[in-house]
Write a structure and sequence with these properties.
Chain lengths: ~280, ~350
């Protein structure tokens, strides 16, 4: 009789996972714990809640939270409005066009976020492509303040986040059997009613998955707000950078980081909760 | 349930359909009577499902017209045709309960809540699922799902019911039972029903008439008895029931199988013909003369198939061909290699 781990499959599987688990533990959980510890220390190293008090009370930081929230929600909503029709269209294409279409959607991934952000600056700035085009056609007199503003950041981030919404949504949409729509039609539902009463409810899990993903990514985003914001758009990631790199306030930076983590986990938890609710009321 | 909403007849006039270069339906003509249970029977690719799709309105034909009663519905979209339809995989909406599914067509027709509830109860009663209203679809077995799909299709009392191989996903025993129930439901409601299947046994059991389809055309239209006893062509004879074909040759002005002459009445018309022999028509001859006029063959058994209720013997008749015959009930079954004498009564002669 062979001893120990070869007697049942489970311990054997765990053994195989140990290298990966160790890596995650070493590079993720330990630093997180360390970060949490730092967040509860004052500059002298003593235990203190000062960092959190500053993070929750200081007006500048509270404003930063609000701005981060404003940006994230705006970008998420626009991604839903633009992404749903796009995913729907791709799902309606004959199967052979699905892969090229999805490839086109994910093409932006081939370029780094930084490069894409700079590209948007070039497009949106005062003498940029968009403004020059509009002025040349006489549609506007003065250039629009697109770059270095809230609008610019939203535009840039939507461009980056859209694939993250479209892909999970597409996965759900492509699993909706066409026979459902035919059944709805045979039962007297015109195209509009069939969409709202059958297709849309069945697509909601995908919408939710995409929404949560985009929201979570937006909360922690740095590059695009930092560059396209022109200093006018301050998000938490930038506040963390400032606290850590500029002021060496590691405690504050750590506290900001932990609160961002808490906000992210809360969003994920909400998403999970809503999905469970939805699953109970459906099938 | 359907007393004040009479069923409609269906007229298929010259319907043709192509999918790319392939001619899927070739000028199909079919008249389905009011309240009739008509089955479209055929192998895959025969066009039966395409014809049903055209009747439902999901595709339009390349040529021809479809009439429900005296109304031309050829280009009317499905949601305005007032039909009931049961799909092969049921297509029950997973985000709605059983009641939610069944009430869907009533909602679409703007029927108020109170009346909806009454009709849902009545429909679920009809399919023996009373009280199942609050269940989720994924809690149901295959047979139960099939009944919900049926209830949903008939709850709005449509004049025409279309069914696309609704029983194909069920196991045999359940299928046999559902065939009876479907037929009983049809008789009770009197809805004109168009049923698509590739299962000839199902067609024979359930239908008032069967349209046997092959390669886009109707090979034969008739009652189950007509189709079984007098197939119009070799294809129909082969598709329905067990059959063996023995080629006929001309001999001295009469038709013959090998050395055996057919009675004088059967003449050669110049076309290659065969004798259709079904296992139940062949009689295993005891020694001694039979008392009815028969064609007699002699051959040897080359295999046996155990069927449960009987044995099916494959018999090889030299210079003629192979036939299948049902082995004697009870008693010893002839073994492989045994010589066997078979008789075919003259009244069972069927030429295709």
């Amino acid at each position: 009789m062979r001893p120990g781990i070869f007697r049942s499959r489970k311990p054997h599987g765990v053994m195989l996972a140990i290298p990966a688990l160790s890596l995650v533990a070493l590079l993720l959980f330990l630093p997180l714990i360390w970060l949490a510890v730092i967040s509860f220390q004052d500059p002298q190293g003593a235990l203190s809640l000062d960092n959190y008090r500053r993070v929750m009370r200081e007006p500048a930081i509270v404003a930063t939270y609000l701005m981060t929230f404003k940006i994230s929600v705006s970008v998420t909503l626009i991604c839903i409005l633009l992404g749903y029709p796009l995913a729907y269209m791709i799902a309606s294409l004959p199967r052979k066009w699905a892969v090229p279409a999805l490839l086109a959607v994910t093409l932006p991934f081939w370029t780094s976020t930084l490069v894409r952000t700079y590209a948007w600056i070039i497009l949106l700035q005062r003498r940029g492509v968009v403004n020059t085009w509009l002025i040349d056609r006489g549609l506007i007199d003065q250039p629009l303040a697109l770059a270095y503003s809230f609008t610019g950041v939203v535009i840039g981030m939507v461009h980056i986040m859209l694939p993250f919404f479209v892909l999970p949504l597409y996965a759900t949409l492509s699993s909706i059997d066409s026979s459902f729509m035919r059944a709805a039609a045979s039962l007297g539902a015109g195209p509009f009613r069939a969409f709202w009463t059958v297709y849309f409810p069945l697509s909601l899990p995908g919408v939710l998955a995409g929404t949560v993903l985009v929201l979570v990514l937006c909360l922690g985003f740095y590059v695009t707000p930092a560059l396209l914001g022109g200093g006018r758009v301050l998000v938490i990631a930038m506040a963390i950078e400032r606290a850590a790199a500029q002021y060496a306030s590691w405690g504050v930076a750590a506290a900001l980081g932990i609160t961002l983590l808490a906000a992210t986990v809360l969003s994920l938890g909400l998403g999970w909760f809503v999905t469970r609710q939805g699953r109970r009321t459906r099938a | 349930m359907n007393d004040n909403k009479p069923a409609l007849s269906v007229e298929v006039a010259g319907i043709s359909k192509n999918y790319g270069p392939v001619r899927v339906l070739e000028r199909v003509e079919l008249s389905i009577r009011r309240g009739e249970f008509l089955t479209l029977l055929g192998p895959s690719g025969s066009g039966k499902t395409t014809l049903l799709t055209i009747l439902a309105g999901f595709t339009s034909p390349a040529a021809g017209r479809v009439f429900f009663g005296d109304k031309d519905v050829t280009f009317v979209p499905p949601h305005r045709r007032n039909i009931g339809m049961v799909f092969q995989k049921y297509a029950l909406f997973p985000h709605l309960s059983v009641a939610g599914n069944v009430e869907y067509p009533l909602r679409m027709r703007g029927i108020d809540r109170r009346e909806r509830r009454l009709k849902i109860e009545a429909a679920l009663d009809l399919v023996a699922l009373a009280g199942f209203g609050e269940r989720r679809i994924d809690e149901l077995s295959g047979g139960q799902q099939q009944r919900v799909a049926l209830a949903r299709a008939i709850v709005s009392e449509p004049p025409i019911l279309l069914m696309d191989e609704p029983l194909s996903a069920l196991d045999k025993n359940l299928r046999d039972r559902m065939q009876m129930e479907l037929r009983a439901l049809h008789d009770r409601l009197g809805i004109t029903t168009v049923y698509v299947t590739h299962d000839q046994r199902e067609a024979l059991t359930m239908s008032d008439r069967i349209a046997v389809m092959n390669k886009g055309s109707i090979a034969q239209l008739g009652t189950p008895q007509e189709i079984y006893r007098a197939p119009a062509s070799r294809f129909v004879g082969e598709f329905i029931g067990e059959s063996a074909f023995l080629p006929l040759k001309a001999r001295d002005g009469r038709l013959a199988i090998g050395d055996v002459l057919l009675p004088a009445g059967y003449v050669d018309d110049g076309e290659p013909r065969a004798l259709l022999v079904r296992p139940e028509h062949l009689v295993i001859l005891p020694t001694g003369e039979p008392d009815e006029p028969m064609l007699r063959f002699e051959g040897h058994v080359h295999n046996q198939v155990y069927r449960g209720e009987s044995h099916l013997l494959g018999v090889s008749i030299p210079d003629v061909g192979t036939v299948m015959v049902i082995g004697p009930a009870g008693g010893p079954v002839p073994g492989t290699g045994d010589t066997i004498r078979l008789g075919l009564r003259e009244r069972d002669i069927c030429i295709v």
